[in-house]
Amino acid sequence: MKLKSIAGAGFEKPMTDNHRTNYRESLELHVHQAFPLNHFLQYVKTLSNYDKLMLAITLKLPFTRKDLKQWPDLLFYKKLNLMLKKIATDRKLKKQLLFFLIDRTIVEAPSLTMINKQLPQLVEEFGYWSVYWTLYFHPDRQEQEDMYQTIRSKLEAQLADQASQQEQTISQRETAAASELLVDSRQNDSKQEQLRIEKKIAILEDKISKETATRQQLELASVQKDKMIRQLQQEQEKLQQQASLLKEQIAMYELKIVNLNRTQQEANQRRKEDEERWLNERTGLLGQNRANLDEMRKLSNQLEQIQRELEDSKRQTNNWQQIAQQRQEELNSLLNSKQPLDKQLVELSEHMHLELEQYNRELLRLMKETASSYEQRQHYRQQMVNALKVIDAIDKFQLEQHMDSKEQEKLEQDKPIAAEQLFTPEELKAASSKHEKTQDNQRYGTFYRRDHGGYIELDSGEIFNITESLVQQLELQHEAEVLCTPTAHPGRANHYTIELLFQGDDSYSPINTYDGFVHFDEDQKWYCIDLNDDSNRFPIHYKDIEIQKPGHGDPCTFNVAEDGHIARLTKLYRLHGEMIESHPARKKNEQQRSKLVQRRKAEPYLQDCKITIIGGQRKWFESVVKETGAELVHDGGEHPERIAAELGRSQALFMILTSTSHRATWEGIEIAKSNQIPHFIIQGSKSNLRKLLWENQQIIRSSNRPVEA
Q1: What's the confidence (pLDDT) of residue 598?
Q2: What backbone torsions phi and psi does residue 474 show, to the nearest 5 degrees?
Q3: What pLDDT score was predicted for residue 170?
């Protein structure tokens, strides 16, 4: 390729890589911005053929590969326009074009402040377009945008002034040339030459007018371009604002993602904890199942042992039956004999002594024999015990007969009339059977409170309900112990007469009792309101409204179940009557009610203590004593000597005088005094027992304790 001949100048090397490095950040910024095509085309028109060739090589235009004798200007502009249309999408091509322009900038570019001060000198020294492209790619352009716009306006104004000056210079030259032609025409006095000169002048004037119009169009285009630039800058600012908003949204979405991840992790953690808890429960259930299986095996072994013992008992019972039959035969023979009873008893006692000696000899013989079994020896020992019991019974009978004979002699004169003399045997038998039948049918039970009425659970497991009116009539409280006697009643299969044996304690019931008044609100609804707290409002049950027919403002006492929201009327006091201060079931224990309620979940306070109670039934006191953590020792009041040893080791003695004989009372008090054990009287209710235990806990814990050395 004949590059030098086409360019008409020597080949110049482009700028060094260091120069391009200084503009790398600015280059990356301008790759993504709009390219000033109009200024670039104006700049291309001022280039020499060599510079155009360098631009064509940079853009890799196809005609540069051929051997050209002269520069194809039209082809160059055609291909250049095609390339300029591609740079909007082809960033690589645009970067090559920007490198070409960077190579035409000032090597050591001054700051924008220096360019502003020395703008005419720099334009005169380096040329307009070198200064323009230096300003376009200046690194401080983004930071000093106002300074950049000011310098650019000055530079464009200077370009317009230069263009106008060039046009004036051209017009002056053309005018001078025209004047010279006129002078020549005058000198030659040739009309034809004058016409030719005038024609040239007209042509020149036409050119001047065209150049002026062109200049005006350029100025207008410049103004429009400035306006477009400002619009583009505004759009750029909007885009930057949108970009900042998008960044904020991205940050918000990232925060949401972090929260979702945290929520997911927490859910996974809870799921793992649930799985671990399930595995632990499963392990516990398996262990419990194994323990139940072991317990079943133990119970099976115990059942087999009990069956064996039962068989042994049956065999022993058969032996006893045989012995009893023998004794009966002997007694029959004695009764049939004509000897006196005393002599017969003496003979029977002697006979039993002889048998006792015989059993003893046989037992001694079996003990010497190694082949004898334990059952055989046990049989003879049991026979000896039975013989001794018979001998002892004969001896006691003879003693009682002797004592009765003496008393009979003393009471012979004042002997009362026997019942057989007043009633026939059939009447006596009927009365006795009726009394025994009534005692056999009596059932002990426990009363449990409900929000309206309650129910009684008998020892046999039978349960029956009782009404609120009956609860109020008998003044029953929660867990009260009662005696139920069945009575005949027409139309009812089971009808009982209820007798209160041992009062319970409503403070431990699942029912809350309030004193209040009836309120009928604007919504046509009935409510019970607590006198002490207006916020305690409970709707009244529809049955109480239909049956008792309350009035607005009537004082009342009502029950509400724990965790419930429906009020049940227990007592309704009309406006013309007087209202009781509190619920009848709470009259005696109102001062202690709040304290007892607080102690429902109290820790056991009588651990390692033993409490003895005489009178009543064990189940009446078992739950109350168990709450304190103490051990219960109980006797029904008939045989206190059975618990004398346990009473001597107890820390307190409680007695119910209404259910205890005088003998049992005095014997228990004597044992308590001898061991310095405090004794108390229960006033017939569980609440009283709780009160005594709580108020005397210090005395109970410190009594009947061994003294440390």
Answers
A1: 46
A2: -85, -5
A3: 56
Of 595, 583, 589, the C-alpha closest to 512 is 583
pLDDT at 523: 82
Structure tokens at 640: 């206190």
Angle at 204 between CA 203 and CA 206, to 5 degrees: 65
What residues contact residue 23 under an 8 Å CB cut-off, 6+ apart?
Answer: 102, 105, 137, 139
Below-70 pLDDT ranges, the chain: 1-22, 24-25, 65-69, 160-190, 320, 324, 327-328, 330-341, 371-372, 404-440, 488-494, 574-602, 659, 706-709
The H or E element spanning position 528 is strand 526-530
Give the Cα-Cα-Cα angle 63, 66, 68 (nearest 5 degrees).
95
Dihedral angle computed from the Cα positions of residues 450, 452, 458 and 463, in that order, rounded to the nearest 10 degrees: -100
Give pLDDT, residue 254.
Answer: 92
Q: Phi/psi at 602 (nearest 5 deg)? A: -70, 155
Cα torsion angle, 466, 467, 470, 476, sign: positive
CA distance 294 to 287: 10
- Dihedrals phi, psi of 165, to nearest 5 degrees: -65, -40
Distance, CA of 73 to CA of 52 (rounded, Å): 9
- b or e along 189-228 (b: 16 or more beta carbons within 10 Å of the residue's beta carbon)? eeeebbeebeeebeebeeebeebeeeeeeeeeeeeeeeee
Ranges of H-type helices in 482-616: 542-548, 590-598
State both tokens at 220: 């207008």
Q: Over the range 256-269, which residues count as b (16 or more CB within 10 Å of their CB) and which as e?
A: eeeeeeeeeeeeee
Give backbone dihedrals phi and psi of 109, rounded to 5 degrees, phi first.
-70, 130
Long-range CB pairs of 539-544, under 8 A, 24+ apart, other chains included:
539/565, 539/566, 539/567, 540/566, 540/567, 540/568, 540/569, 541/452, 541/566, 541/567, 541/568, 541/569, 544/452, 544/568, 544/569
CB 656 within 8 A of CB 617: no
d(CA 553, CA 574): 9
Instruction: Give me the pLDDT at residue 248, please.
Output: 92
Neighbours of 89 (CB within 10 A): 8
Q: Say what the pLDDT of residue 246 is.
A: 93
Q: Which amino acid is at 628?
A: T
- Predicted pLDDT of residue 238: 92
User: Pairing between strand 526-530 and 511-520?
Assistant: antiparallel
CB atoms within 10 A of CB 50: 18
Residue written as token pair 């334990």: 374
Provide the 10 A C-beta neighbour count for residue 187: 9
Global pTM reads 0.34
**CA angle, 508 as apex, 507 and 509 as ends, to 5°?**
95
405-414 long-range contacts, Cβ below 8 Å, gap at least 24? none
- In tens, the pLDDT along 100-114 reads 887 777 777 788 788
Q: Distance between CA 30 and CA 97 in Å, rounded?
A: 11
Own/partner contacts of 3-9, CB < 8 Å, gap of 24 or more, are 3/53, 5/69, 6/49, 6/53, 6/68, 6/69, 6/70, 6/71, 7/48, 7/49, 7/50, 7/53, 7/71, 8/48, 8/49, 8/50, 9/48, 9/49, 9/50
Structure-token pair, residue 231: 């619009």
Predicted pLDDT of residue 528: 93
Three-state DSSP state, 448? strand
Burial of residue 448 (number of CB atoms within 10 Å: 0-12, 13-18, 19+) = middle
Helix (H, G, I), strand (E, B) or coil at 250: helix
CA–CA distance, 185 with 32 (Å, rounded to integer): 63
